[in-house]
Amino acid sequence: MRKRFSICAVLVILASLCTPLSSLASGYGWGYSKNEAHKIPDIGKYASLLEKYNAYYADSSGEKNVYVTFDNGYEQGYTADILDVLKKHQVPATFFVTGHYVKEEPKLVKRMVREGHIVGNHSYHHPDFTVMNKENIKKELESLEEAVAAISDQKDMKYLRPPRGMFNEDTLNWANELGYIHIFWSLAFKDWETDKQKGWKYAFDQVKEQIHPGAIILLHTVSSDNAKALEKMIRALQKQGYSFKSLDDLVLRNKLPEAIYGL
């Protein structure tokens, strides 16, 4: 993967973060109606589609849980600092990595696994799944899974964040058949442009304004703003009564009866 998103990819992500879900060519770019009411954003008819294929974009339990996720396409020098903060505050996270990242930063991937974080599948080459067939998608996912297994103690993967946030019913179905769970997000902001960072307070304020019970937060590790704001975000949310959970907690809760999960 190149060290910069293509212009097309950036435009897709910009549109998906700022507008409701809309059809793009043969697929959809993930998006939602942002709000500052501290409620789960509305995704309209796509809620039933995600439910049909066991995909997630938030925790609908109503509890004040937060799920921190990062997308790692390439390294900008901030991931180690982010891992330091997570370790200090015992906050679990999921890092969705690409083949480029695994190849270039094996020590960081090993550290993620060693310190108890989940490494998720963001594909090997970061293509648009909605213009691919099932077999080629399978190759993308398996290649990344094998790359992570070869350099860490994590030998399999179950969480998928589709490249560029692109999806359609076929990709949701195929991923589900391949044993993957799609993980979208309910809180994000424009943080990936490394030459247009706005300072830690911008990142902090974006999270503060959009936070809601059950939020799955998407952050990019290439952002210096995120690295500098992360500890402040964690402390502020904990003061508001939020608990930081892993995606395993979310999925396990939905698969097991509440009485058993609460034991």
Automatic annotation (TrEMBL):
<dbReference type="GO" id="GO:0016810">
    <property type="term" value="F:hydrolase activity, acting on carbon-nitrogen (but not peptide) bonds"/>
</dbReference>
<dbReference type="InterPro" id="IPR011330">
    <property type="entry name" value="Glyco_hydro/deAcase_b/a-brl"/>
</dbReference>
<feature type="signal peptide">
    <location>
        <begin position="1"/>
        <end position="25"/>
    </location>
</feature>
<dbReference type="Pfam" id="PF01522">
    <property type="entry name" value="Polysacc_deac_1"/>
</dbReference>
<feature type="domain" description="NodB homology">
    <location>
        <begin position="64"/>
        <end position="245"/>
    </location>
</feature>
<protein>
    <submittedName>
        <fullName>Delta-lactam-biosynthetic de-N-acetylase</fullName>
    </submittedName>
</protein>
<keyword id="KW-0732">Signal</keyword>
<dbReference type="InterPro" id="IPR002509">
    <property type="entry name" value="NODB_dom"/>
</dbReference>
<dbReference type="GO" id="GO:0005975">
    <property type="term" value="P:carbohydrate metabolic process"/>
</dbReference>
<dbReference type="InterPro" id="IPR014235">
    <property type="entry name" value="Spore_PdaA"/>
</dbReference>
<dbReference type="InterPro" id="IPR050248">
    <property type="entry name" value="Polysacc_deacetylase_ArnD"/>
</dbReference>
<dbReference type="GO" id="GO:0016020">
    <property type="term" value="C:membrane"/>
</dbReference>
